[in-house]
Every structure is written in C-alpha cells, then in structure tokens.
Amino acid sequence: MNQYATKIRLSLLLLRLGVFLVIMMWTLDKFVDPGHAVGIFEKFYSVPGVGHGLVYALAIIEMVLLVLFVAGVKKTITYGLVLLIHAGSTFSAFSLYFSPWDHLLFFAAWPMLAACVALFLLRDIDTCYTVGGKQARLAENNA
Questions:
Q1: What's the CA gap between 83 and 99, in Å, rounded?
Q2: d(C-alpha 128, C-alpha 133), whole Å
Q3: Residue 27, SS3 per DSSP
C-alpha cells in the first residue's frame, strides 16, 4: 500500500470517528434528557407530542446504527443512513442560518455534513479498522 493510500484511509477513519462522536453524543442526550429531544422534535421537525418512550426507542435504533457505522458494517446502508439523519438535522434548522450571529454554533453542522458526504462517497476505500477492512485491502492488492 502506498503512502497516499495509507493517509487517505487514516483520514477516512478520523472522519468516521469524528462523525460517530458527534452523533453518539446526540444519541446519549436522548437517554439522559429525553425532554430535550421532545423539544427538538416540536421546534425543528414540527412533530408535537412525541413521548419519552418513542425517544428512547429512537435512541436505541440510533445506537445500533452508530455501532454498525463506526465498525464499517454494510457501509452503503449505514453511511447512507447517517448521512440522511445528519442532513435532515442540518436542513431542519435552515431558517436559523439566516440570522447567523444568533445561531453561530449551528454552522458546525455544514462541515460535518461534508464529512458525511465524503465518507459515503469514499466508503469503498474506508477500510482502516472496519469489519472486513483487511479483506478489502487484500483483494485490492491482489487485483
């Protein structure tokens, strides 16, 4: 494996870990403070009356998805779902971007969205510390 391939794979690993960390914190927040998630559903998604039970169920589903994502399992599906979840989150707050100085922290969503897109587009070469990653590298070297 040449030095550029190694650097790219390490960079993709770091992007995957960074995206995992942010979304994992959002997921943990659903367990720690389900009322916060209820408020987000109401304010940003216009979905009133979401109960704590549904928030916990969504958090469990997210947790499973994130474990599969960070492990690099079924990348088209898991990377795609993480991308869609984050895109939904980013675009649901779209009106806040028109008053940037009041909502400056929301702009952090855009580089993370770019990271999610990059991971999805480069998922076939994101093999560093993924399930099946070693096999993918061996197959590539034998081609």
A1: 25
A2: 6
A3: helix
